[in-house]
# Entry
Amino acid sequence: MDFKKIIKDVFKDVNSIEEQGALASYIPELANVNSKKFGVHISTLSGINFGLGDFQEKFSIQSISKVLSLCLAYQMLSGEVWDRVGVEPSGNPFNSLTQLEKDRGIPRNPFINAGALVIADILLSNLDDPKKDLLNFIRSLSGNQDVNYSTSISSSEKSIGYRNVALCNFIKCFGNIENEPDKVLDFYFDLCSIELSCKDLSALFLFLANNGKTMHDNRQILLPSKTKRINALMQTCGFYDESGEFAFKVGLPGKSGVGGGIIAIHPGQYAIAVWSPQLNPKGNSYKGMKFLEGFTTLSELSIF
Amino acid sequence: MDFKKIIKDVFKDVNSIEEQGALASYIPELANVNSKKFGVHISTLSGINFGLGDFQEKFSIQSISKVLSLCLAYQMLSGEVWDRVGVEPSGNPFNSLTQLEKDRGIPRNPFINAGALVIADILLSNLDDPKKDLLNFIRSLSGNQDVNYSTSISSSEKSIGYRNVALCNFIKCFGNIENEPDKVLDFYFDLCSIELSCKDLSALFLFLANNGKTMHDNRQILLPSKTKRINALMQTCGFYDESGEFAFKVGLPGKSGVGGGIIAIHPGQYAIAVWSPQLNPKGNSYKGMKFLEGFTTLSELSIF
Amino acid sequence: MDFKKIIKDVFKDVNSIEEQGALASYIPELANVNSKKFGVHISTLSGINFGLGDFQEKFSIQSISKVLSLCLAYQMLSGEVWDRVGVEPSGNPFNSLTQLEKDRGIPRNPFINAGALVIADILLSNLDDPKKDLLNFIRSLSGNQDVNYSTSISSSEKSIGYRNVALCNFIKCFGNIENEPDKVLDFYFDLCSIELSCKDLSALFLFLANNGKTMHDNRQILLPSKTKRINALMQTCGFYDESGEFAFKVGLPGKSGVGGGIIAIHPGQYAIAVWSPQLNPKGNSYKGMKFLEGFTTLSELSIF
Amino acid sequence: MDFKKIIKDVFKDVNSIEEQGALASYIPELANVNSKKFGVHISTLSGINFGLGDFQEKFSIQSISKVLSLCLAYQMLSGEVWDRVGVEPSGNPFNSLTQLEKDRGIPRNPFINAGALVIADILLSNLDDPKKDLLNFIRSLSGNQDVNYSTSISSSEKSIGYRNVALCNFIKCFGNIENEPDKVLDFYFDLCSIELSCKDLSALFLFLANNGKTMHDNRQILLPSKTKRINALMQTCGFYDESGEFAFKVGLPGKSGVGGGIIAIHPGQYAIAVWSPQLNPKGNSYKGMKFLEGFTTLSELSIF
# Structure
């Protein structure tokens, strides 16, 4: 399989299509990003590392970090995690409170905001220095020490994140948040503020294609059975209310963020990251989705 | 991979666990089935055909037939199908009208009852003799001529299927049913009444593991790209409100029916059918789910 | 209180305002009505009978008849009625299935379609000749023999009433309809098809302003305590999703129909009927609401 | 009408019925109240003032204060209030977020918590010293200077009021709260903490039975037309998800609080207050509802 050629071809195609979608506008830091940015990077188990476009430029990974915080919580607590958060697609926009009301404070899955808040709460209760420990965990995944929170992003979100404040307090009133909502929200906004490039991302997520083992130092981050479950969750719940569409068109487990990034995993093969900041109406990168659809179609590789 | 040994081991384990769950009770024909029945059958691309327990006994496949009617509609109409039915998990019980109300008559996916009614309507509008043509299509998939509707099942459902009558008329009032609801319902109840054994089922669904091509006569039923999409749909939407759980625990695309049957596909490898009539609270076979979870765990094979 | 003068003044004012709203369009018989029609008629306990405009022309009273069928059921069964239908405002459009799903087939109140279907079912189970008996009941209220069903209206509704078919079958599947849905729907469509003039209506509903006693022959149709409850129900539930607005602006118990008619009751004083076929977005007569608001403002009479 | 005798009879009857319901438990201050407390007081326009039982003991009026804050906002802003909050019954429990999500941050009415938060926000934006000004307004209604906030109640609510924090932030994210949520919540918790006796309450609310004019100093607090509207709102929305039931059984506009108090108004006649802390499942005083039902039945006086 000539990944490089396929990536080049699809990149060129998608790059030439008309700009569509809109930048995430709810905080200035995301609205001010250059909307023409477009980058892609693949890391394969066979050792290929290849990128095109703006693949070395850092961007706000936003919800993509929810996979990483979940991996850390799952590593520490195993199945207990699922007592407090479900594994079902939500069938609702990513920040819906309706579902939460019906399910008495148990979020449908760990990738909607409500679920990620519960995971943040779990980490707060189980880590000595949550902010630092999470960063160390992420750095250890690919040996990349250049991973950091963005203070400007997180403080910007903190100042206007009323909906997340609502979510967190709502879950708290059902008893499914242990710590004070303000502390949970602080940590949550921090973890959403992490900035990485496509190159960083694909290297960092490669362990999920490798049965849970890192490539650079061969450590078992998650057991194979747990790794499969994380991938399954990304498949069914990784794209807000568009998860079915992504499975349908792309056919890979993955996770998107409102910063315009997407990570996708082909178990046993590779991790691939795309970034293009303009979002479709469901909040996923317009070009990112297009690129990955083209990529799995041309490579005739998907898990299905 | 010694599929036979793994199947034997898991079958023995699951067979010995306490009976749990309840028979589908809404029509006498399903409630009267012997609840101890338990069968499994695998058909692999490598030519293995192996079954245990009651794998040769026919049972009512119910919603499993929704995959087959969808395949026929998709073969005939291609992408047009998705103008009338979505590809997203519903996040709601399988017969919910709430979602339908919000989405103005567009069912979330073709595997909830609402979606299957729309697919039935599409077939009615596009086939000369829908009942006969669908049967011929199904028979052609594995060359098995012994596939039939069950009049007792379908007439039983027709006499008490008030909720489906409600669903169909509700969709009609939004304009997403072309034919008269009574005709659509008749055809729908017929297609749910098909009876097959585990052995029949795994043979019949094997083309979905084979890039859309039949094994017995090498015909391309669906293009590979369409086949992948059917598999993706089964992954995200095949188990009502438990699709995430099935992806999470079993890690294969599949489809269940309230008759207690489950079909699962490992693309490029095999199709496997299980039958045990007692259902868990979400309407999926209790032992069937257990068996498949054990099977993919021991075989260390899943798509993730 | 010079009712006649106030009615004349408000009638003139409202008649001069620009046409707004739209005719009920779902059946041709309603869509073809002359949209400029406007009539009003009052009947007081003190013996005043006064009308203006098209007050002698019959129109389709539609949902207004739901009050009459309820009165008959309540007369026959007393409190048992409330085991099968609630007394709470729905907070949802008049034909919503969502609420019904949540409440397991118990409609929120007898004036939404779902509730009126249950009342129709009750009458079917308790009357010898439901269609004839209901007509006789209505005729007896004011001694007016000229009350009839409209075959053209009812057969028109029967041919396209998919949403009501959905509603009725949905309630049936929860067990809250005793008879076959087709029979219930038939009777329901008949009772919605009754045609009356404003003059007929105010005479007929006057017993609800008179503690449940008819004026023309002094018979106690409903006990005073039951009459108060019917009025209370009209106050809180009589105007679909606009009942609060009507209470707020008009301040009288009442009931509207999509034919553009409204009946309002001032207990101890009068019954007043208005008709103007153009409906506001919530399905109530645009001019009818305006007229009644003006009338209670100028007369400084409301129950509050 | 011998109000005193009727009150005595009904009070005796209701006092003798078995205790039912449960104390509001979410804050200790309410859970620790003596559940046997039972008091009633009437104030009529004809000058009768009569109480029985614990009618002179102060209790936490909780949501009853929402009528008072609304009156002040309506007095100041008139119709503008209704741009930000609806006048329709909610058809949902008193603290639902679902409705709010659907209606984009516009609460259904000013008596659900969401609506009262918006009214609190309006007062914050329009008063110089909101806490003091509101207290002065309430004191002026009956000339009673002994009206105060309870610091223990409000600080108790502030410490655990997660659901209200959620509600307020949720409305804020739709733009329908102008001030910072923390400030709005502070003021809201204060106004819910007011403590009054039945005697205080009936005197204070008597102006709503008197066309908006106080009895003690003859000042027009609200215009008659506005007063009618406040009464209409209490009728359709005053009892959470049980407003229809209250209209149906009692037939008077009124408002309840989770402290177990109820105020009811008979326009043109009287205001009556009841207090009994045990609540029915819908959050309204069990004995209070019983008493008022008996009272309007025996007095044969209701607005219907």
